[in-house]
Design a protein that fits this description.
Length: 212
Amino acid sequence: MTAPKPQQPIRLHTLDISGHCHRVEMFLAMLDLPYELVTVDMMKGAHKRPEFLALNPFGQVPVIEDGDVVLADSNAILVYLESKYGTGQWLPRDPLGAARVQRWLSAAAGLLAFGPAAARAAVIFKRPDDPAPALARATRLLDVMELELKDSPFLVNGQPTLADVALYSYVARAPEGNISLEPYPNVRAWLARIEALPRFVPMVVTKVGLAA
């Protein structure tokens, strides 16, 4: 099956240190879709300006513009891109396969966002947060991933799906939040398999101590 292509490049409003944005850029690249990056200077409050709030009233990145379609929320964007431009590999069309991917998208919005992602944000922005809750959530998530990746190269059905795309960025950068991946050989092998996929786009290594 030949996947369709957009008539013009998809515009991705992004911030390079955001794992939510990275997962979208990585997936655009993996689908071999034309896209252009629009950096949102959140340090200077660009996400609070009327022109950006018109795209996303929540004032968050990422946001894509695909022709007349404007869509926010990284997981929603992944589902949209696969449903419109994919062939079914990344989001299975059968009910059970789709549900298994959705399970991990929920984990990405829950334990991942409030675990590894939160721990990383606290470190790089030097926030005075108690790290214990985020570290505990990260441990819960990584423990489950380590177990489920023991007998499977990827998180769902033995092949890469949106589950892997959604989890990759913040797990890969978990050490930036003082979360060691050394106890998780299966997770580290999984990261390497994703990084070996065609058209993989790496995420930036973040400097600690950015202004909040």
